[in-house]
Each structure stands twice: as C-alpha cells, then as structure tokens.
C-alpha cells in the first residue's frame, strides 16, 4: 500500500470536473446524447477509486457567463440560445430546435455549464494548481461561432483553448479523436496560427458532418494549422492506431505546443450505433496514453482532456472515459481490471442490461508503424498519405519518411 501511495503522491496534480448537474444537458428521451452516459462514467470512476486519489482534486462546473461564451460565439447566437432556452422553439438558421438539437427548457444554462466545466479545469492548469485536467462531460466540438450542430450548442473545448490564448499561451495543440470531424473547433481557429487542430475521424464521404478532408489545412494566414485524417468506413484498431501514430506525434512535435487539449469522443468504437469505425476500448485507451506521453515530452505534462461523442451508453462510454480519467491522473487502470459489482448491479437495475465485466474488450492490440512502408492498395494508407502530403512539407517534414 505504501508504494501505491508514494506513486500517487508523485503523480501529476490533476483536476477532474464532475457534478450531477451536468446531466441537465438532456435533449430528451430517445436522443442519442443520453445523460446516463455521464453518470455511469462518474459512478465507475468513483467506484474504482479514481476520485479519491491524493493527486486528484474534484471540481464543480459553473454556468459560463455571456462574456466567456463571447470569446468563441457571436452575441446574436447566444441571444437565440437564450430565447430557445426560455420558450423552446425552432430557429432553423441557428440549428436550434431541430431533430438533431431539440430545444429544451434550460438549454442555455445546461450548455453553458459544460463550458464552465472545461474552463474550471483549464484555469487550474493556468494558475498552476493542476498540471492536468479532464472534463469528460465536455467536448462539444461541432458548435461553431454562430450555429448549433451535431448535439453541440456551445463549444467548451474552443472556449478552453481561447482562455489559454488569452492567458498568454502562445501555442495550443488541439487533438480530436472523435469519429466525427471536429468541424466547429477547427472553424473557430481556422485562421489562427497559434492553434493547431488535428482531427482523426471517419471520412465525410460516409459520415456527418461531411467535412474534414486532407486538403482542409487552415486559413490564408494559418496554412498548416488544420490537419485532417479522413479514414474509410470500417477502419479497425490496427488502421486507426496506424493513422494516429503516422500523423499526430510528428505534427505535434513539429508545432511545439505549450499545452495539449484533446477531445476523446469514443464513438469510433465498433459497438457505436451512429458511426462505421471498428475500434475497441483498448485502442482508445492506447491513444490517450500516447497523448499523455506527448504532453510529458513537449508540454511539461500540461494537458486538458474533454469527452465528446459516444452513444454506446453502457458498454463503451463509461469504460473509455474512466480509462481517460485514470491516464490524465497519472496511473492507468490495468486493462484486465474487473468492473465493480456494485456498478454492474446499478447498470442492470437502471438499464436492464448486463454490464461489461472487464475494463478491456480483450483484443490483440497491434498496428504497423509507418516506417514499415506505404501500401497504396490500402485505403487507410491512402488516407494517411493524403494528409502527410498536404501538411508535412509545411512543417519541414518528408511525407514519405518522417
């Protein structure tokens, strides 16, 4: 026990944001963005002892002010969200009150609270009280400056990045591994050379929002600041991790950020009902470990992680984000850890289904490194090469060899 406590004392100071009020972000019965995915994640993490680690500080979110929202959203848009929040109705031009983003009472407050959660975590990093932070309730990466989209009303990740810039940070790397293109965050910073946005996602040829191709590389004043890896449908662990490791570390290292902000939508999982990728819990855990290592290597450990998509409410989301919390906090949960009996009983009682018994999908995790060679007959390799050809030369890297 003493060795574990010693290890925890040396782990990075970490801020974890959670409060049941975050489940008020609720589009109603039957909507894929079910708030139960948040409470199940919190329960699993708590029962595995993550919230009690000595290096972890639990923080409550707050409702972000209009001034804070205005750093990444237009005033007229915020006013429209407020109006829909008071009297639910449809404003089609804003993406509000649609089938995708149904209006509900208190929408403004619920959405602004997600932003407040990410701002609490990033402020802890800025003031030095934490080296790392995680807001698994956040990650609303489709919201743009003027419009709701893809279950996202306000963009908490963008607000956190902007807070970092406003605090004096010169370079922020934003890495998005959601199955859907991180279009909202990318668009907000498309002309800002201080922000690198990397999105690894299923190709827009097959999946919403239909954007995020290799030739989308940033605005005229920030060419190379946007990096997109558009993967073919049905990409599995080996292809997904090959793509991640063939693009993300090289570009992030070349960019030399002061902090990494990452979005961990887990809808690339093979069980997710809304996408066509075939990854595992194990692969997504591996990507989080790689981002942790990059933060340690390049940013003195500074790292903010947020949630995102993920619609396999019981089987996937709680395990992926519990692994994420543990990795942010400096001591990963071993893959063959059993999920607590009390948690499985809660799942059975609340959802009427059997919960996973292990924190792993029990897969043979393997991928080919880019160094073994490019296969032009492989659709994943073609997607990787398209990105490398577009962006690598802009950083002085060779698309074939680096």
Automatic annotation (TrEMBL):
Histone deacetylase domain mapped to chain residues: 31-326
The keyword Protease is annotated on this UniProt entry: no
Stated name of the protein: Acetoin utilization protein AcuC
Protein source organism: Psychromicrobium lacuslunae
PANTHER family reported in the protein's UniProt record: HISTONE DEACETYLASE HDAC1, HISTONE DEACETYLASE HDAC1-RELATED
Keywords from the UniProt entry: Acetoin catabolism
InterPro entries in the record: AcuC (IPR003085), HDACs (IPR000286), His_deacetylse_dom (IPR023801), His_deacetylse_dom_sf (IPR037138), Ureohydrolase_dom_sf (IPR023696)
Any GO MF annotation of the entry: histone deacetylase activity
